[in-house]
């Protein structure tokens, strides 16, 4: 099987670098184009990144000598790829425009950006949870006037530490949710060298994050109607989002009440047995078990659990009854793997497996 040719838009930034690292020796995809800002265009990828390589593994040899293209030269980039991952650093309006421009060249766009998360006919996907939302792609292609081109986005990285846990319990009707997220500095595209102020520090504010954390799960829970995704009315979610001195891994402390209160054993069974299309199709990046429940009182921990199943699974622990709500628990997800580039790669694998992405 020949590999699909992939372009990475915004390939020199932190998320772009993560795409490059994840796609090295991928069984289905091969990076053939890296595009970035005009100041990086014309340089080799190694020259463009310079000393800003932030991954723990070395830069793959296969990409070092790729000549970086200008991301704004949409036609030139598109003709050399089957689809693109988008991690561009632009304003929201600029991102919307450039992603639609790529889609209109009949190039599917799998986006790590937030710009199109509320565009009614653009799926916002956690592949295990709401793959049925993919059916709106046909309506989107009609709107864009394309045969193959479309946009699909991933949700905010922080909601993946608790939304899968709630979704797996849909049969019990979660109705009220209080979640506090403790978010790693890599979620801001930084490390401790870039951001020494975070050492020995906690910042109780992340701009725009609480609104995303309260509303985006409702879109995941939503339904498709008349070629659009209609967000769910519930559960009612309120959040606080706090930046903590952790490199990778977003943690959530969650309180939840249900329409039909399950017992603890029913909850753990629903979590550990939950699976979606990625598991059924055995996609290359899919964890064998999506949700892991940990019995120890002091788990999950970022250092011990964020890399479970290559950082693509969710870890949950400390489930217990609460005196105000029905239950409380702690969730953890790897924000730059499951929450960002890894989740986008898994989405692309699902799209290929279902025939939405193919060789041009």
TrEMBL record:
One of its GO terms (biological process) is threonine biosynthetic process. Pfam families: Semialdhyde_dh (PF01118), Semialdhyde_dhC (PF02774). GO terms for molecular function: aspartate-semialdehyde dehydrogenase activity; NAD binding; NADP binding; protein dimerization activity. It comes from the Bacteria. Keywords: NADP, Oxidoreductase. SUPFAM superfamilies: Glyceraldehyde-3-phosphate dehydrogenase-like, C-terminal domain, NAD(P)-binding Rossmann-fold domains. Belongs to the aspartate-semialdehyde dehydrogenase family. PANTHER family: ASPARTATE-SEMIALDEHYDE DEHYDROGENASE (PTHR46718:SF1). NCBIfam families: asd_EA (TIGR00978), PRK08664.1 (NF006416). This is Aspartate-semialdehyde dehydrogenase. It comes from Anaerocolumna cellulosilytica. The gene is asd.
